[in-house]
UniProtKB/TrEMBL annotation:
An MF annotation (GO) of this entry: hydrolase activity
Signal peptide per UniProt: none
BP GO annotations: nucleotide-excision repair; transcription initiation at RNA polymerase II promoter
Native organism: Powellomyces hirtus
UniProt-listed Enzyme Commission number(s): 5.6.2.4
Highest classification ranks of the organism: Eukaryota, Fungi, Fungi incertae sedis, Chytridiomycota, Chytridiomycota incertae sedis
Record-linked Pfam families: ERCC3_RAD25_C, Helicase_C_3, ResIII
Catalytic activity: Couples ATP hydrolysis with the unwinding of duplex DNA by translocating in the 3'-5' direction; ATP + H2O = ADP + phosphate + H(+)
Record-stated family: Belongs to the helicase family. RAD25/XPB subfamily.
Domain annotation Helicase C-terminal: ranges: 572-735
Ranges where the record places region Disordered: 20-52, 239-265, 775-817
Basic and acidic residues composition bias: residue spans: 783-802
Keyword terms of this UniProt record: ATP-binding, DNA damage, DNA repair, DNA-binding, Helicase, Hydrolase, Isomerase, Nucleotide-binding, Nucleus, Transcription, Transcription regulation
Protein name: DNA 3'-5' helicase
Chain intervals with Low complexity compositional bias: 25-46
Amino acid sequence: MSKSDLASFDLTAPAPKITLRLQKRPASSSQPAAAAKRQKVVNVPPQVDPDDPELHITEHYTDASRFARFKVEEVSADSHERIKYDTVSPLFSKDYTFLAQKADHRMRPLWVCDDGRIILEAFSSLAHQAQDFLITIAEPVSRPARVHEFKLTAYSLYAAVSVGMETDTILGVLERFSKVTLPERVKNFIKECTMAYGKAKLVLKDNRYYIESTYPDVLKRLLTNPDISKARVIRDDTIPGRFDGKPSNGQPGGAKIDGAANSSDASEGLGAVITLDRLDDEEDDLDDESEFVHSFEIDKSQVEEVKKHCIGMDYPLMEEYDFRHDALTPNLDIDLSPMTTIRDYQEKSLSKMFGGGGGRARSGIIVLPTGAGKTLVGITAACTVKKSTLVLCTNALSVDQWTKEFRNWSTLKEGQIAKFTSDEKHKFVGDAGIVVSTYTMISHSGERSAATARMIEWINSVEWGLMILDEVHVVPANVFRRVLTTVSAHTKLGLTATLVREDDKIEDLNFLIGPKLFEANWMDLAQRGHIAKVEATEIWCGMTSEFYQEYRESQHAGKRRLLTVMNPSKFQACQYLIKAREAAGDKIIVFSDNVYALEYYAKKMDKPFIYGKTSNLERSAVLANFRRMGPGSFQTVFLSKVGDTSLDLPEATCLIQISSMFGSRRQEAQRMGRILRAKRRNEEGFRSRFYTLITTDTEEVGFSAKRKTFLIDQGYEYKVIPNLEQLIPAEERPKLHLSSWKEQQELLDILKQTDVDVDGDEAVNVPGEIAKPKFGASKAAAKKQEEAAKKLKKQQREEAAAKKSKMHKLFRGWRGD
């Protein structure tokens, strides 16, 4: 059989890159006796000929050191004949028919595949227990109604160990739930990723950093690294057998960084470097050395370098804060209000942060959908740590909301909480308190006013017990990640509804903040009434021939995007939906990234609108009027992308999206979050409504398909209305704006003369405001900006490739790159 007789498919799955080579089905099922058995080769070794016609081959192109050794397994001819061959199945998934099912497989809910994928039958009676386990050890990929898909990654297993899961526990529970015997490759991957995880911790105790472990051999190995050895601190007051480092004579002892030490004498010097802390103070038997925590101190200025070297040695440090024994950081008198009630999933998420016991807090990220109470989770964490807390938000409105929620849900006294924004610059009263600010205020490196500079200097001088990062997915941006290097915080808690970005920087959060501690299931919370049920609809709006001709002929990307948003059919659909939903009693948010369209739509329909240049005072007034019920209140408000995140509008029950930021999955999910809060309306079968208006035969169609993927993976379904005739009754069309050809032509003439920026988000020159539009200058500027954007993207790709090449093998495994 020649190579041309093999069908080759390159799959782009979330799991590692996999190439399937499937042997075509034999013409006859009869086989010679000598061929009664066939060999199936997993991870083909070098000595095996991949073109051997007797082999059914599956090749895994991955880092060989991360997975099981090559293995040849026997597959009988009868089993081979049971494999279903067709021309379609190989295009969609790998052939898993070689996985042998257990006798009682119908009673088990999981399919564990040898490429790290785990399929959960959500209709199984054991699905709930299995799902809680899978959320801990694996990354959710897709969770529709009946079947959920997860994948094992190095990061997800790191997170599992960080919350107390052990290797044997992970393997044992997987085996118990799995319909098939666990593939050896999966077992070996789990063992390799978890055996070293959690064996070394970075602990901040009494404002000193310690690397501690219950395994002395691990510390000895770390000290063989010359950079780690040089960063260790040897104190004169350190007594072998004690962890606290108190001097034997009661006097403060000196300390020095062991810069002259070398790795060769690390073992000999352990008696003076590593101290012991007994886990059970009442136990008198000292024979079992595992009862002790071994540790050595490292220099505070070298912490980041030490963390990097530990990762390079396959011992990533778990970060914990011993807040109950931190006597140097002032305590904050704060508790939850007696009227506050914590929901079960909020309690479960916090247990991942504080579940280690002993008064320690883990740094990490909690993912909850908008409306599920992320703010209360952060407040509860602050009440648990009881130390000074810094809360960072995305904008000034979020600062006001966090401040209000702290006062509502906790026992904070007046003066214990302060705001740091462009309008307010206050410190809290006393030794400990809460400061709420924005990422921009902390990270801005330009010129500052004297008051702002003093406030920044004070914030950087305080040792914060807890730093809460709201909408943590923005942190990997180069501007905002500067915050983590300037502010000193003992532990960090990231909160977000959408742990996704369109670049590859989302994985940086594992180093900047910590592992993902908990992620909730959106549909499960909706079914239980904690967030609103949503009906999502996509409405296709065709362009008129004149608009479409201008769209095709325009060479300006921003102008084309403006034409798709200003499509008369889209305007009519929006106007009709607002009229219909207001009559039904809904409170409506209309989103538009395009500021020109936002203003045009709002003014034509006589509705209030908010965008970037709207003052904070005006924003607050508009939103307050929107939140009110009854005569005189606003039923509809138009928002630009400033309303994407951290906007608390629990009254909103309907959202209409007329333009968006390209194919951003995060933005789609964040906008749906504006209407996810559990509603006060309790009619039977009531649902919030999410409408997306798409101009057909334009780039919006492709962008929309990508934007929907995150929500579809969460289990949401989109209903499609393919034309306006199915949405708007014929007798209603003439009553809508832009229904006549004359109105449409007048709008098109204005748009032809309207100068827009390169992104098409804002009109630069509008007829009537200038004497003559400068299209030539605009095109030249647009071309220059587009070239600069291409150059920047190329540079980012090169940096990403360089970063990946330098990334340690521990964090390259099973990413699917």
